[in-house]
Automatic annotation (TrEMBL):
<dbReference type="Pfam" id="PF19955">
    <property type="entry name" value="EAD1"/>
</dbReference>
<dbReference type="Pfam" id="PF20012">
    <property type="entry name" value="GAP1-N1"/>
</dbReference>
<protein>
    <recommendedName>
        <fullName>Effector-associated domain-containing protein</fullName>
    </recommendedName>
</protein>
<dbReference type="InterPro" id="IPR045430">
    <property type="entry name" value="EAD1"/>
</dbReference>
<feature type="domain" description="Effector-associated">
    <location>
        <begin position="739"/>
        <end position="821"/>
    </location>
</feature>
Amino acid sequence: MRVEQAVYGEVQGRGHGLRASSPDALVAAAIASNLDLPDAVPPGVQAWSPFVRGFPVGQHYVLARTFLDTTASRGGMVLTHALIVSLDEVSQMGNLTALLACLASTASACPTNPSAIEVQPLDDGLPPAPDLIGVANAIAGQRVAPAVRLGVEGFENLVYSLWRNLWPAMRRTFAFRLSFGPNDVVDQPPPALVCTPEQLQARWTQHRIVKPDDQAAESASAAVLCGQADAAQYLALGADLGVQVADLRVLSRLERLHSLEAGSDSFDDLLAAVRLADGLSNQRTSGGQLKDSLLQRLAAQLPTAGCKQLLQMRNLSLDGFSNAPTLWSKVVLLVSELKFAPADDADLVNMVEASQNPELALASWRSAVASGLSAAAVHDNPGFLKAIWRWVERSDAASTAAIEKLRSEFSVEQRLVQEIPRRLIPANHASLVALLRKKGWLMAHGAILAATVSPLEATLQQLKVDKALDHTAGLRAALCHATLAQTLEAAIVLKDPRLVEMCADLAVAQPEVLTGIGCEDLTEQKIWAAAIGKINSLWSAPSNPVAVRDTVLVHLGRGTGAFNGLVEAIAGTPLADLTAAPHRPDLWSLLPVSHRNLYLRATAIGWLNAAVAGADINRPEPELEEAVMTSSTLQAVLGDAAVPVQTRLAIVSALPLFREEDFVSWLGDFLRSSRTLPHADADQLGALVASRRWQRAVTVLCNKLADRRYDLKPALQQCASLLNLFQRWTFGIFKPSADDKWRVFEETACELYPTGPDCEELWSRAGGKNSDLPGSSQTGATRWHTALRSMRYGGRPNARELLAKMREDRPGNEKLRLFTNDVDIVG
């Protein structure tokens, strides 16, 4: 092997530099700085010279020994003898014995006129350095390069021992030297191993210090470096993956991959193996069998994975895996079937956020997770819908991504709304409601408002976007947590017709919602009207429905805001009875024409019922009187024996339109069913008949009295003005004078014998002389008047004789019988 030489040291006028080199050492000048001291020698440090160093540069490898130059013009200068060899050739050398032997052993032995030399590799079988295991552990286990060996003495032997266990690719990158501290390690890449004076150990707190007493390798990589294990299996694995094992990091990764690949089928181990293979080889043509096996095994374990493990996969590119799509498809399935448990929310949120952010995860993972979430949404995974509302409070990005994946269907919105908690504090309220509006989910929009603000505010905000009058789901959702009073308040304040309808629906199930309404407000009236329209019995829902109705009627009378629909609704309820309503007579002309008769009929019945109940009976106004007269209840009341006679008579008295024929019919029925009429009732009956001058009714009473219904005499006494003189005399209504009696006698005679006393020869048959009678040229009444006047003052025949003949002619005449027995006539 051809070896070029170079010597470095103090160069006059330039400090450290190349002093001399063999003719073909073309890189000698370029590496002069690499062969100086790494830094100034720290004060008090002496045990550092000589030391060896080695490092690759381009296609060459430099092996050098450096000495303190005591002949230099200033302190701290060094003299270095370097050998420059082919990198390809030296990497094939099993040991460095022959090369190290070519290096000057002292500063004075450094060649002054170096030339190229030929060196033959040697295998001297020297024993390994005593601290080889320690350095192997340090190099294999280092977190920060380089590993640090304390002391310069024996460093050369350690390097020699370590080199023997390296393989060609590793030797090509292996570098070592002296260092006074981490600050002088500026090489890139840094050397794998440095030696440092023992008194500088404190400077290396972040680095792995070689432990010379180590007796066992700490890892498979360390075992390879110290000669206790063969690297062939790792090199073969690297070759399969198309990886050149040129540094310890690759060896460590291959060792780890080999261990994991041969180990158990736990998800974490297999994921680590896939990650290693993914990082080591991105070519699908390399390691195909191994990669396929790892991926299949990992895919088989996916059903056991949780969110945290899924997150660990987010930086897998799998570009070098031909069957990567199979794994990602299983990730899609796994995500779609997650339980989305609350305990996993932190990881779930991170997972969803990462699936939307290229800076947090690679594209394949993001696509698989996003597809899985979409599948969970499409298949209405119940856990997914519940989780969304938990994520709303944790992460706007996660909840937004989840909601956007839901199908914009009403059934999906319904199920989502069912999962909204009663109280919610969104991470970004404005973003959330804007998203729901964008999806057209007004019901979910309302439900979110209900969970975040007061019912009134929720309804107000909902109305700003929810304007279609045929859509109520959103408003119902906005009020889903409202009390009855809050719902009513929202309707009254905001006056939306849908809220009116909602309150009416609410009243059907919970009538108490209307308990406190007073109907001063028009919206309250609309709500009550709508409620009555749904269930008629809700007319009684207000705590004092009559007072509330009267409030409405007052507004109607004043023209200050009565809802016509409520007035019409009340017409079909007991409140239509306006008997006790204020200003009732003025209302009839104001009520809707279409419903006025309903009010009149109800009020007519109410008026009659009030009368029966003992209320003062006043004459109803014309409209009401007509309704009372046509009401079937009137006949029922008048014919009800349980209703006092005074009441029934008072009702008729208050109805000027009551016809005599109807009264006569009622009177006949009443007298047949009533055997005795109390004096006061008879007085009231007579007063009524007298006030109406109902002659036919008087006749009925007379007939009944004649039929020994003496209890009716007080009634006829009240009707005296309607009786003739005979009736008043006959019934003992008053005591007539003798003149009165003779006048009645005269009237009766005229009725029975209209042409005069000589009619039917009555006068002569009674013992009188017709010649004494007035001439026939006079009327029958005049002739009777003259004849009876003569008889009263003693003329013949006398009254008894005349009446005897008259009774013979008219034996059934009661008047004649009465006259016959009266002393003022017959003496």
